[in-house]
Amino acid sequence: MGSQALQILRQGVWASLTGGWYVDPHQSTFSNCFHLYLWIFLLAFPFLLYMALPPSLVVAGVYSAVVAVFFTAIKVVNYRLHAMFDLGEIVEKKQASLTAEAPRTEEGEEGSGFDLDHESLQESQENTLMIEEKAKPKQYYRFWVLPGKWLRVRYDRLALLALLDRNRRVGENVFAVVLASLVAFLGFLLLLQGFFRDIWVFQFCLVIASCQYSLLKSVQPDAASPMHGHNWIIVYSRPVYFCLCCVMIWIFDLSGRSGSLQPFSLYGIIIFSAQFLLCVRDVLIVFALCFPVIFLFGLLPQVNTFVMCLLEQIDMHIFGGSATTSPLSSLYSLIRSVLVAALLYGFCLGAINAPWGDAHVPVLFSVFCGLLLALSYHLSRQSSDPTILWSLVRSKLFPELENRNPEEPPVEIKDPLPDKLRNSVKEILHSDLVICPLMAVITFAISASTVFIALQPALSVVLYILAGVVGFITHYLLPQLRKQLPWFCLAHPLLRSKEYSQFEVRDAAQLMWFEKLYAWLQCVEKYFIYPAVVLNSLTTEARTVGQNHKDRALFISVAGMKLLRSSFCTPSQQYVTLCFTTLFFHYDYPHFSETFLIDYYFMSILFSKMWDLLYKLRFVLTYIAPWQITWGSAFHAFAQPFAVPHSAVLFVQAVFSAIFSTPLNPVLGSAVFVTSYTRPVKFWERDYNTKRVDHSNTRLATQLDRNPGADDNNLNSIFYEHLTRSLQHSLCGDLLLGRWGNYSTGDCFILASDYLNALVHIIEIGNGLVTFQLRGLEFRGTYCQQREVEAITEGVEEDEGCCCCEPGHLPHMLSFNAAFGQRWLAWEVAATKYVLEGYSISDNNAASMLQVFDLRKILITYYVKSIIYYVSRSSKLEEWLTNETIQEALRPCLGSNYVDSDPTFNLNIDEDYDHRASGITPSSFCMVYLDWIQYCNSRRQTPVTCERDSPLVNLCFGLCILGRRALGTASHSMSASLEPFLYGLHALFKGDFRITSPRDEWVFADMDLLNRVVAPGVRMSLKLHQDHFTSPDEYEDPMVLFDAITANEEKMLISHEGDPVWRSAILANMPSLLALRHIMDDGSDEYKIIMLNKRFLSFRVIKVNRECVRGLWAGQQQELVFLRNRNPERGSIQNAKQALRNMINSSCDQPIGYPIYVSPLTTSYAGEHSQLRSVWGGPVSPHNIYTWLISSWDRLQKGCGAGCNSGGNIEDSDCGGGSTSISTNPAVHTTQSTPASSLPQPHITTVQPSMGLLSSLQRTSSIQGLLGQQLSSSQLSFSSSVAPPPLPGPERFCPASLLENSGHRAGQRAGLGPGSGLHYESHFSKWSFSGRKGFNGPAATEGEGAPLQTIRTQVRRPSIVVQFFKKIQKYRYSLC
C-alpha cells in the first residue's frame, strides 16, 4: 500500500505538476539524469533570457529557433533509433573487445564503425548511448550517422521508451516541433508584454517548461486520460491549451486597449466594453498560471474530446442541434447549422430592411418564415451522424463498393440492419421532400396574412396559455398518471396498460387510448403551438428591429432556428421554459425584459443548465444522505465526516460543473466530490464495442483445442445484441407513445428482466429518431449486483411502516416510510411491463439427460436415423451411389460375414449391436433401421432402389458406422463413460470430426458426406432426444419422425454457438434455436443444452438520474486509470441501492467496468413503429401520394358510373362492391422480427352460387367482399382498398368442387356461423349484421380474437343484393 501511494505521488501528482518529469528509481542513472537536465534546460533557458537580455522580438525569435532546433534533433534521433529497432539487424559480437576496424574486416562491409562500448570510452557511462550493465553486451545495433559511418548502439527499445516517448509517424514529430516552437514564441511574447511580474515570471516559465517537456516525455497516465497505458493524444493537451490561452490573452488585451469593439448591454450587463475585455484577459492569465494544478486534477480533457464538446455545445445551445456521436459528426452538425443560418440570414436581413407598415408584413419576411420553419423541420429530422446518409448515397451511386468488405466473413444469413437503416433514412428524405415545401407554403400564407400583427396582444397571451396547458397535461400530468408510483404517493398507476395485470406477456404491447392521446398532444404541440409561438415572437421582434436596430438579423435567424429545432426534438421541457419566461419577464420583472425572443432564447440555454444543476444536487444529496449511506471501505467511513464542512465548496463545484457540463464524481466512491473534465453527451471518448469471439475471428487450432469463446459472458452477449436490434426497431416509437415516461438527451434507463439487465444510454434525440447505446451486464452477476437487482424489482406496496411503527396505509396508497424512501433514490420505476421481442432461454444439464445408458442409446438411435434422413434427402444421393471410390470402399460391407467390431461400439448404447458377433453387422443394422430407410426413400421425389443389399442401404450402413466411430474417437474410445461421451458429443456438435480409421477414409471422396449428412445428423439427434422426454413414443411412427425432422429443419437452427451462423440467425429472428454449450468457469466443467424460443419478454424500465451515471462513470475512470486502484473488491463498486452504484460502475467500458456487451451507437426511427404509424399515419412521400391519387381517381370513376347510370353494374361503384374492405388501426404492432409468412392470414370463405348464374358470373367482376382480419370490433371501419386482389377464376365457383371438398364446406359453416358476427343464409335469402356500428356489433369487446371471415361472391345484379349494397352505401355516407 505504501509503495503504491509513493508511486501515485511520483508518477501522478508530481509528474502532473512538472509536465512529466519525476525521478524513477526503477530506471537507470543515465535516464533520470537526462530527464532532470532536460527539464532544467527548458525551465532555465527562457527565464535567463528574460532576466538577462532586454525584451525584444529578436530575443523571442532566437528562443523559438533554439527550441525548434533542439526538439528537431531529439525527435530525429529518437525516430531513427526506433526505425533502427524496427528494421535493423542484431549483430553478434565475436570477440571480447572489438575495434573500429574489426566489424569491417570480419564481415566484409564497407564504411567505418565506431565502438561506443564501455572500454572505448574508459567506462564513462554518462557520455554514451548505452544502458548501464555490469556485464559486457554480446550484441548491438548499427546506427548509421552518415554514409559509411555508423555507431554501435547497445540500447534496447524498452530503455529508449523509458527515456523518450515514441512518435510513430513523421507528421507527429513535425507537429510536436511546431507546437514546442509556438509555446516558446507565444509564452515569451507574453513575458515581453509585461503581464507577469516578480515570482510570477518564474511560475510562467515553469508552465512553459511543463508544456514543452510533455512533448518529449509526457505524463502517463494523465489525470484526464480515458484509457490505460500510453495515450499519444494526451501528449498534445498541455501545449495546445497553452497556445490557445496565450492567443486569447493577446487578443483580449489588444481588443481592450484599442476599443474597436462596440459594447452593448444585455440584462444590465455591458458586454465587450474595454473593462469587460481586460477582466477576461486577467482571468485567462490566472488560468494559465494555474496550469499545473488544473492538469493535476484533470479539469481539461484531451484535445479531440475538447473539440467535440465545444462543437457539440455550440450546436446544441446556439443553433438548437442535438448531441453528437464523434468529433467528425460534431463538425458535420455545426457546419450544417452554420450554412442554414447563413442562408436564412440573407432573407432576414432583406426583410428587416424592407418597409414595415402598421398592418403590413413584407413578402420577404414571409418567405424567411417559411424557409425557417421548413429548414428547421428538416434539420430536426436528420441524425448528427452522416455515416448512414453516406451509406445510402454510396449504395445508390457506387453499388459495387457495397460488396467489398473483406473483414466480414461470408455467412448464409444476411444482416438486415444496414438495409433497414438505409430504408429509414430514404423514407425520411422522401417525406421531407413533400412536407418541407408544404410547410413553407403554409407558413408563408399565415405570415403574409398579418395575423401575428392584427391580433396582438391577445394572440400572444392565448398562445402562451395554450402552450402551458397542453405542455402541463402532456409532459407532467399524463406521465405522472402512468408511473408505477404516481407522485410517490399512490401504490399503482392510474393509467395502466393492458399487460399490467398479466403474469406472463404473450403478445406485443396493446395500443391504449391514453397513448394515442399522448402522441396526438405531442403532435399538436410540436407542429402547431410552438411554431405559432416562435413565428409570433419573430414577427414582433422583426417589426421592432426594423424600426430601431437593423443589426439583429443574424440573431433573429439563429434564435428562430434554435427554438424551432428544440421544440421539434425535445418538447418535454419547453413548456416550463416558456411559462417561466412569460411570468418572469411580463409580470414579475418587466423592466429586465429585452424582447420576448431574446428572453425566450437565453432562458432556454439557462434552463438546460439549471436542469443539469438540479440533477447534480439530487445525486449528491441522495448519495451522501446519512440515513442510507453505505460504506464500502474504511476510507468511506473516514471521508464521511470530513465532507460535511465542505458543503459550500460542493455547491460551488456543482454550479461550475453544470455550466461546463462536467460530471461531479465521488472520490473513490466516498462522500467527497470533485469536478472532472468536460465530456460530451456520449461520455466515453473511445468507441468501445464488444467484439464477439467465434469461429470467424479465431484460428482453427484455437477452436479445436481451447475454444476461447466458450465462456458464458461471450456466448450470452448475443442476447444483448438481439435486444439492441429489438430496441432499434421500437424504441423511438415507444418513447413517443410515452411508455418510458419523460425523456431528454443524455438520460439513462435500466431494463431488468429475469436474466437480462441492461443500461440504455440515450444520446441523441431528433424529430422521429433516437440514438442510443446499450450496455449489458452479466447474467450471473456478483453479490452486489444481485442486491441492487432485487432493489429495483421488489415492490414497496406492502410496506406498512411509519417511522418506528407499522400503522398501515390507506388503500392504494404508499405508507409513510415507503413514500419517504422513494423520494431519496437516484432512480425511479418508469414502467413494470415494457414488452420487447426477445428469446426465452432454457438450459438443461446434458449430464442429467444422458446419465443412464438407455438415454444414450436413444440419442445414438436418433443419431443414426438422422444420418439416414439426410442421406435420403440429399440432392447428391445419385452421385454418391454411382461414385466408384465410395462403392469400392463399401463393397466389403456387402459380405454376409462382415462385422465391424470397433471397440467404440457398445451393447449398452447401440441398439443394432450384435452380441454374438461382438460388433455391428449389416444384418443387425437392417433389422433395426431398414424400415426407416425405406420410408425415407419413399418420401423422395425420385425414389431409388432400397432393398437389403442395395447401394443405398450399404451407403447408409457405412455412414452410420463412420458417424458412431467418429463419436467414439472424439470420446477417446470411452463412450461407456459419461464425461468422455459428452466431450465427444460436443466435439462432433461443433464440427470437429477426426477420421482416424483407414476404413473411413472413403468419406473424403466427397466432403459433403460429412458437412451435409453426418454433422447435421449429430445436431438433429440432440433435438429429437430433447423431444423424447415430452412424448416418448411419438417418434416410433416413421411418418411422425420424418415430419418432425423436416419441421425442425425449416423452423429451427441447430448449431454450435461459436458458428457465425448462430449469431446471424438470432439477429435475423429465427423462431427457435438449439445448441450444446460447454461451460468451463470457476473450476466447473458442465455441458448444457441451450434452447431458444422467440417470444415477447417483459421488462421493468428504471429511469436513473443521468448525473448519477456520469458521476460514477467519471469516478471509476479516475480511480482505475489515474489512481491505479486494481483492487477487485474496492469500495467504489460495492452495492449502494439508493444509487445503483454497482450496476452503473459495472457498465463502464472495459477494462474499467465489466459489461458482457456494449453495443455500437444505434439509431431508432419512428417510421419503423407500426403502432405509431397507425396513430399518425405513414410517411407522406411522392410515391404514396401518387398511389393515393390513382386509387382515389379509380374510386371516383366507379362511384360516378354507378351513381349516374342506373344501368351500371353495382360492382363498379365504390361502396357497392368495387373494393370495399374492413380495415382497422392495428392494436398490435408487428415487430421487425416477424416474417410476413408468419403473420395471421385472413381466412377466406367462398360462397358458391347456383349453376344458373355461372354464365353471368364469368362475364362480371367479383364483389370484393368484406376483407377481414383478426381485429377487434372497436377498431372496425369502412375504407377503400387501394389495390384490390386479383379476380378468382370461374373454376372457383364450380359446384363440383363444393361437393368434393366437405372440409371446405365445414370451414364455410364455421366461418359464417353465429359467432362470426356476419350471417348469410342460402344464396339469396338474407344478409344480417349483429350490430349497427360495425360488423361485430356493440356486444363485441376488444378482447375478442375470433377472426372475421371474408366472403366473396359474384352476381348478375340480383335485386336483393343491389338493395343490400345500396343500404350499405347510404349508411356509409351517413357516417361521413
TrEMBL record:
The chain crosses the membrane at residues 36-53, 59-77, 174-196, 233-252, 264-287, 293-311, 331-353, 359-379, 433-455, 461-478. Residues 1214-1243 are annotated as: Disordered. Residues 947-1171 form the Pecanex C-terminal domain. One of its GO terms (cellular component) is membrane. Its main location: membrane. Residues 1220-1243 have a biased composition (Polar residues). The keyword Membrane applies. It is a multi-pass membrane protein. Keywords: Membrane, Transmembrane, Transmembrane helix. It holds the Pfam family Pecanex_C. It is found in: Membrane. PANTHER family: PECANEX (PTHR12372), PECANEX-LIKE PROTEIN 3 (PTHR12372:SF4). Belongs to the pecanex family. This is Pecanex-like protein. It comes from Oreochromis niloticus (Nile tilapia). The lineage of its organism: Eukaryota, Metazoa, Chordata, Craniata, Vertebrata.
